[in-house]
Amino acid sequence: MSVKPVLIDTNILMLQQEHDVLGQLRTEYPHMQLTVLEGTLHELERLTTQGSGADKQKARLAQHLISRQHLNMVPQSNNHVDDALCEYALHNQGIIVTQDKELQRRARAQRIPVLAIKRSGRLYAVP
After folding, report:
1. Whole-angstrom Cα distance, residue 60 to residue 44?
2. By CB distance 3.0 to 4.6 Å, which of 19, 21, 50, 85 could disulfide with 121?
3. What pTM was computed for the model?
């Protein structure tokens, strides 16, 4: 049986500095592969050049985090990251971790499990 992915959206990586999301995921889902799509890297790169001051800094830290944490990198064929996250999760029985309400709604409509972060910093399953 292959290892199932936990797909991490860009906004979650940018919150890592405030909340140890990756640590929580590794603790609560030890048999799953923490995964980032190629498009997420492109979004972070765009934010480092075009984002606001705070977003630029968070994006740079997220880029550094990806290399330091040895997250699984996956190429994507779909140009839109949210579409690619849903497609990859469906085909690989994965979980999506995001704060994006629209992505949460779309994923749940396709019966894809979704996790998000409470204000307290804890992960929760989106109903």
Report:
1. 7
2. 19
3. 0.90
